[in-house]
Structures are given as structure tokens and as C-alpha cells.
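Q: Give me the 3D complex with heme C.
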Amino acid sequence: MREPDLIAIKEVGQIGETIRRTQFSVIEELATMRHALPIIPALLLGLLALPAAAQDIEKGKDINGVCAACHGQYGPGGKKGEYPRIAGQRAAYLEDQLRSFRLRKRMNIPMFPYTQERELSDEDIKDVSAYLAGIELPTKWPQFKDNDDALTRLTAMEKVMIVPRAEGNVDNGKAIYQKHCASCHGKTGKGRGKFPMLIGQYTNYLMKQMDAYVKGERPHDDNDSRGILVEFKTSDMQDILAYLTTLQDSQQ
Ligand code: HEC
Ligand code: HEC
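A: Here is the predicted complex, encoded as C-alpha cells.
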């Protein structure tokens, strides 16, 4: 037999072994779970209380197939922030933005055809948002086990998203952020309710959005049409962005 065939057979054997081991550990886990039965109803109730449970995540995953052409399979965005990251963003915010694109309240020429009513119904918007919100993009390189196969490794590596540190005065950025932004975007930049997560997003994308708010092209908050951002100099905004890039590790 030729060398590559042998390697292939060995690999198939290894995959089989991995599957067997996984099955075994599932059985083992189920066995130990019998002792933990009383907590299961509580767990189920907890799951039912999550609003996302009402959404069809599988359907959301299908819909994301279209979005992936620009935002990537796991929603990390790309082209240095021309396409923003949408994975792990808050579901309520994603829904809001998709509806604004559809209404043309927020202009997005590349996305407009994908958000028209016949393409993306209200239910679709909820499903795809729930799916995307649930994707976690780690900020650290994964540690592999010896028996992890090539596909597992590749998938894990593809999901890693680390926004490079941005230049700026981090102390000044921190002071402004914590005083003026944290009340809505959260102390660690993860967002809150419908207020978007800002950490883990491309710096130049965020800068472009702040510019759009200041110019009145996109409404930021309810204070006035341009919102709180008009109060700050461009250099302050750069400092805020520099500070946000230091916060990514607290994401996990
Ligand atoms: C043809 C390319 C393209 C496709 C396909 C596409 N998008 Fe986008 N999307 C963009 C671009 C470009 C932007 C950034 C617009 C801007 O700069 O304001 C964007 C922005 C967004 C935003 C706003 C992100 C934020 O943080 O403000 C969301 C949410 C979004 N897209 C979701 C989706 C979903 C869901 C789909 C699939 C139904 C999709 N997109 C399909 C190009 C695309
Ligand atoms: C009163 C609540 C509130 C405060 C305070 C606030 N924001 Fe926002 N921010 C919002 C809302 C709401 C949105 C989404 C707006 C929309 O629908 O376009 C947003 C969106 C953003 C976005 C765009 C995110 C994206 O993915 O497109 C950036 C950047 C941003 N805010 C930066 C800031 C900064 C910097 C500060 C502090 C100087 C700040 N915000 C303070 C409510 C707030």
C-alpha cells in the first residue's frame, strides 16, 4: 500500500476512536447526571426563561449563509472593518439595526437588497440575530489536546478574533468612557439591553460610525439627533477606542 493510503486509514481509525470516546463520555455523563436529577427541572426552567429559546437557531444559521458572504461564516466581519463583526453582538441591537436597514433609517447600500421585506421577515430577523448573538469569538489562541483532529483545530483558529491595540491615550479614554459611555455600553464595553457591545469590534469601523453620528447621518441616542458624541474631540474619541481595545480580555 502507498504511504498516503496508510496515513488515510490511520486517520479514519483515529476519527473512529474520537467518536467512540465521545460517545463513552456522554454515557458516563448521563450516568452521573442521575444523581443530579433534582437540579434538572431547575435547569430546564432557566432555559425556558431565555428569550432566545423562542427563536429558531437552526433557521438563523441557514439565513446567516447569505450574510457570511460579507461578514464571514462565524460573523467576524472582515476587510479590516469594512464589514463589521456581528458575532456575539447583542440580539436586541442586531434586530434594531436590521430593521433600520430595512426601513432605510440607517443607510447601508451593500446590505439593502438583503434586508428587504421579502428577503428578511421580522421572524427571520429575530432568528438570525439570536443565532449571531450566540456565537462566541475567543480573544485567545486555543490550546489543543493531542487527539483534536485537523478540522477541530482549523475551526477553533478561524474563530479567534483579536482587535489590535489602537493608538491613543488609554487613561484619558478610560476616564471619558467610564463617565459618559459606560451607563449605556456597560463598564466593560459589552453593551446592555439594546445598547451595542463595543469591545471586539474593528477600531476603524467604530470610528466611522462615530463620525456618521456626529455628522447626523446615523442617530446615536435620544438626547438630540446627533447624541452625546458631538461633545467630544476626534482625539478624545481615538482615546476611547484605544481604551476599548485594552478591554477585550475581560470578555470571557
Ligand atoms: C454585500 C455585503 C453584505 C451582506 C451580504 C450583508 N451585510 Fe451586513 N453589513 C455590510 C456592511 C458594508 C456593513 C457596514 C455598514 C456601515 O459601514 O455602516 C454591514 C453592517 C451590518 C450590521 C451593523 C453592525 C453594527 O455593529 O452596527 C449588522 C447587524 C449586519 N450588517 C447584519 C447582517 C446580516 C444579519 C446579514 C444577512 C442577512 C448581512 N448583514 C448581510 C455588508 C453586508
Ligand atoms: C444614552 C445611552 C448611550 C450613551 C450614554 C452612549 N451611547 Fe453609544 N450607542 C447608544 C445606542 C442606542 C446605540 C445604537 C444606535 C443606533 O441604533 O444606531 C449606540 C451606538 C454606538 C456606536 C456604534 C456601534 C456599532 O456597532 O455600530 C458607537 C461607536 C458608540 N455608540 C459609541 C459611544 C461612545 C464612545 C459613548 C460615550 C462617549 C457612547 N456611545 C455613549 C447609546 C448610548
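A quick observation: The domain at 54-133 is CATH 1.10.760.10 (Cytochrome Bc1 Complex; Chain D, domain 2).
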